Amino acid sequence: MPQRPFNFSAGPATMPEAVLSQAAAEMLDWHASGMSVMEMSHRGPEFMQIAAEAQADLRALLAIPPHFQVLFMQGGGIAENAIVPLNLSRGAAADFVITGSWTIKSHAEAQRYCQARVAASNVQAGDPPGHRFIPDAATWQLSDDAAYVHICSNETIDGLEFPALPDLVALGSKAPLVVDFSSHVASRSVDWSRVGLAFGGAQKNLGPAGLTLVVVREDLLGHALPICPSAFNYQTVAKNDSMYNTPPTWAIYIAGLVFKWLLAQREGDGATAVQGLAALERRNMAKAQLLYGAIDQSGLYVNHVHPQHRSRMNVPFFLRDERLNAPFLAGARAAGLLQLKGHKSVGGMRASLYNALPLSGVQTLVSYLSEFERVNG
Known about the structure:
There is one protein chain. This protein has 377 residues and is an alpha/beta fold. It has nine helices and 16 strands. It has two domains: 240 residues, Type I PLP-dependent aspartate aminotransferase-like (Major domain) (Aspartate Aminotransferase, domain 2, 3-Layer(aba) Sandwich); 106 residues, Aspartate Aminotransferase, domain 1, CATH 3.90.1150.10. Helix content is 32%, strand content 16%. It is globular, with a radius of gyration of 21 Å.
């Protein structure tokens, strides 16, 4: 079987080939049920088994504590930008740390439902264009009365990632931390002691588009604003095991297959071998270091993000001569390197290195970068 092209899309993104093969084999008849998963009742025993296994595997994968609820919802991260303030703001203010395109969108949407304050921003007058660093937490101007503090732990478009989640208690805040972890969920461990709520669309690291993951501390349930739609009330969703309305059944099924694949991943041999999230984190660090190293050593390519804040998942880069953009993308496609064009709002290129992208994909990209520079540099 020929090598499939390497897909560097930011989402919907590359999926494990083993998962796609299993889904194809089970398409017409899931486990001798006589039905495709797409034909099942979400309240039938077959799908209830699928959903229960998916949640259990996700809890194991991310080491989610028992006092957090796992919700399978719809609407993606953009919908959560409204659903979070509808559930957590309690009519008060919320603090936002602006680090890129997605926190700008989150802040703007939250203003429709609460007083959304900017506690810190990496956009200052006189700075070069673009988002290049994450403001030091010691400089954040957190409100004493904030209902929550919102961050995006990995900015998909701009390629910035928090090296570690901030400790709000150490910063003197009693507010829960809300984390948009859409584009690096399951790529590294999560310190749940610092988190009140985390959310993310599945279409980057967890599965297909259509499923939204919400992990919320139980004490934050039950405070939704009266205008919050019932289907978006976290307490209602939790009480109904994410089946208050018809859930995205196919997306949950595929995500469940991905969770099993992620749990089985292994890096190293013998006593030094690690599995699951630890293996994925080790592998993702190696992939990112390889690509950033090639960019930094180049005279043709450049990444503007401060090294300590570079994303492991989404690597934006620019050709110093933008006239070469079109031939670069054409040559990449011919080499089996797909969807490297940067987001339309920033331009340039972007390589997303999600869990399902193998190291060989990054090695092939690095070889192409070198050859293209040799010919065009």
